[in-house]
Amino acid sequence: MQQDVPTRQSMVKFDDYEGPDNPPEGWRLYRSSSPFTQQVGRMYQHWDKEAKIFRRGFRIRKAHCNTRGKVHGGMLMTFIDSVMGMTLWLSEERQGVTAQMNTEFLSNADPGDWIEAEAQVDRCTRTVAFLKIRVRAGDRLVLTASGIFSLRERKEK
After folding, report:
1. Of the candidates 121, 73, 117, 78, which has an alpha carbon nearest to the alpha carbon of residue 96?
2. Counting CB atoms within 10 angstroms of each CB, which of 25, 45, 65, 122 has the fewest?
3. Is the C-alpha dihedral spanning 93, 94, 97, 99 positive or negative?
């Protein structure tokens, strides 16, 4: 008779968050047109046009976690890539593709934590944009990153 061998994942107990998203006041639900980004769940955003600061956030769910029950690094990379892309569009009215991202993971985050990213364009040339982003879970800094985006040709109006 064959015995089932426990896997690491089957041994981990997740404290899944099943409560409401509770985004900050004034934030709006982000409705992605990207089939890939739609799979990561509900996200909310806020654009401060005057300061040219874009923020996006989400409530961590079990589906966002690795086998240790912490937010998955790949989820955070997907998240910051989309935030920097939208920041570029809102700040410079330019579209770009990610050429490089440098990320420093500083701390973990758990189911139920509100994750919030704030990004800004540092510099934008005719062909390349440089962005910086910070991600927090409450007062705790989760990661910082920088990105270089190759800009698409601008279509004149």
Report:
1. 121
2. 25
3. negative
The segments of the chain whose pLDDT lies below 50 read 6-12
How far apart CA 128 and CA 102 sit, in angstroms, is 16
Distance separating alpha carbons of residues 99 and 68, to the nearest angstrom:
30
- Integer Cα distance of 95 and 150 in angstroms: 8
By DSSP bridging, strand 128-137 and strand 140-151 are antiparallel
CB 80 within 8 A of CB 100: no
- pTM (2 decimals)? 0.84
Whether 4 maps to a domain, the answer reads no
Q: What is the pLDDT of residue 108?
A: 95
Q: Which domain holds residue 102?
A: 35-151
Answer for the pair 127, 150: CB distance below 8 angstroms, yes or no: yes
Residue with tokens 């923020």: 55
Say if strands 53-59 and 114-124 run parallel, antiparallel, or are unpaired: antiparallel
The total number of structural domains that make up the chain: 1
Q: And the tokens for 79? A: 């998240």
Read off the CATH number of the domain in which 133 is found: 3.10.129.10
Give me the phi and psi of 21, to 5 degrees please. Answer: -70, -40
